Amino acid sequence: MDCDKSRELLIGCFGGEIAGPEANELKEHLRECSSCREELASLSRTRMLLRKAWPDEPIPQNLIFDFPGPRREFWRLWSRLGLAKFGLATVTVTTCLILCFLSLALLQTRLKVGEGGFAVSFGLSSRLPSGPADRATAITGPLPAALDRREVETLIEHSIQGLEEKQRARLEEILMQIESRRNADLRRIANELSVLESTQSVVYREAMNNQSTVESLARDLYVRANAPASLSH
Amino acid sequence: MGLIRLTDKDLVRRVTRGDHEAFNQLVRRWERKLFNYAYRLTGNREDALDICQDTFTRAYEQILQLKEAEKFSFWLFRIARNFSISHYRRERNYPKSNSVDDRENDLDLENLLASTPPVRIEGGLGFEPDELRLIVEKALDQLPFEQREVIVLKVFEGLKFSEIAEISDCPVSTVKSRLYLGMDVLRRILSRN
To answer: With a threshold of 0.95, does the pTM exceed it?
Structure first.
């Protein structure tokens, strides 16, 4: 071993961290090389001097820690999340998010996801598609990544056509119901009129009978009043 | 108390669960070591005490970020090292002005060393303890921070090269190189005639 290699090992030996074959090699070299021996001795003397000159001192005053109250604990938790540096920005972003959610809640926003499509609606009058007819008007199938203006117009046109067909069918159904109700009412009125007519003819006949009876009675009374007294006994 | 017998790892776990007394136990265990480490890096008791205080405060705040609880002491030294570097840079940019008394008591290292044979200095003989401390302190002042730090950790704290490498965030070979260069400079300063 030469002195250059020895110098590399000397510092390990100085630090007390050399073992095995390297330790043996260094030991062999130091036995022969007075220069390296003096180097190691000089380093050790310097170390002794340092330790002697500046021994450990007791700490002038024991450290006292007052542990955080609830408020400081909150900020400590905040810093645990690594957000302390961006506290203001984080508070602002959080507030904005809360406001967004509140706005969505006030507008009664509804979001329905399923079967590869989704539907969003706002307000009280909106109704999410639930039945098969409604689904026909909703966007179905996988949603394209991006829609151009023409595709959007086509989708809107299809939706409007679907709505118009549905309204037309509903109107026809209502008209048919009205027609059938009108016919039924007419039939009922005709029946009632015929009953009234027959009742009136019966009443007329009865009135005529009553009149003839009254006339015959009146005639009998007149005859008896104008007959002779002997006849009257 | 039973906390004295617990390892650093167990104490750190207790601290993460909110046990303040466990943290005080860690402070009591490491405050002296940390103070002497900071004192030898800064050469000033008050600054060293401030660094200790700041280090433990930072450690308490960030203890959840400590991945390996058994390496608490190295992590602590590393925090103290960062504070010491900040102090070192601040002192280099804005050195404290010595008072009249300080200047009167200040040691003229060059004259003292020039008038003293090297053998006597190396042995430390013929000097009062305070005088000798001042000589060593002035000699350490001549070193770059990295070399001074490695010498403090190896010679005074007795750490292994691998542990110093972890604290200093550099390879073991660099630690050895810094130690050798630093010791060589100190030896030459203290042997000057």
So the answer is: no
